[in-house]
């Protein structure tokens, strides 16, 4: 497990990068919008009935995503220098992109 200072630094960098990608990907037709509330990231969908929540969990050094009635827990992968889902190997941005595509049934969504 990485130390707390490294986790905070790396999670801040990863979440800021994701934030910028989400802002770029927000579409004009309003199918989703992004909000950042004190380190808790929310992706809110047009009907308001669902959202994704992305947050760092410092005590256990993971980034958590709550989406589609599932909790995804990403660990720091030293080899790739990224937070990744152990089950699939997807990094944070790749996983969020896939979840958005699935939720909105839109394979064209890209997180730069």
Please characterize this protein's 3D structure:
By secondary structure, this protein is an alpha+beta fold. It is built from 2 helices and 6 strands, in the order H-E-E-E-E-E-E-H. Strands 1-2-3-4-5-6 form a 6-stranded antiparallel β-sheet, with helices on one face. Strand 2 and strand 3 form a beta hairpin. The mean pLDDT is 92.
Secondary-structure topology with pairs:
Elements: H1 4-25, E1 32-37, E2 40-45, E3 51-57, E4 62-67, E5 70-77, E6 82-84, H2 92-104
Antiparallel strand pairs: 1-2, 2-3, 3-4, 4-5, 5-6
Please trace the helix and strand order, writing H or E for each element. Answer: HEEEEEEH
Hey, roughly how much beta strand do the residues contain? Answer: 25-35%
Computed over alpha carbons, the radius of gyration is 14 Å
Oligomer: single chain
Task: Walk across the major sheet and give the strand order.
Answer: 1-2-3-4-5-6
* SS elements, strand count: 6
Structure annotation, total helices = 2
Helix/strand/pairing class, anyone? Answer: alpha+beta
Largest beta-sheet details: 6 strands, antiparallel
Q: How far do the termini sit from each other?
A: 29 Å
The outline comes out as globular
Low-confidence stretches: none
Helix fraction by DSSP (H/I, runs of at least 4)? 25-40%
Mean pLDDT: 92
């Amino acid at each position: 497990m990485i130390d707390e200072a490294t986790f905070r630094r790396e999670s801040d960098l990863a979440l800021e990068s994701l934030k910028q990608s989400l802002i770029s990907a927000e579409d004009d037709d309003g199918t989703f919008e992004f909000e950042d509330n004190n380190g808790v990231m929310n992706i809110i969908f047009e009907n308001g009935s669902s959202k994704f929540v992305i947050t760092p969990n410092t005590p256990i050094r993971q980034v958590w995503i709550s989406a589609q009635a599932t909790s995804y827990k990403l660990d720091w992968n030293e080899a790739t220098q990224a937070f990744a889902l152990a089950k699939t190997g997807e990094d944070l941005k790749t996983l969020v992109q896939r979840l958005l595509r699935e939720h909105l049934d839109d394979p064209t969504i890209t997180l730069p």
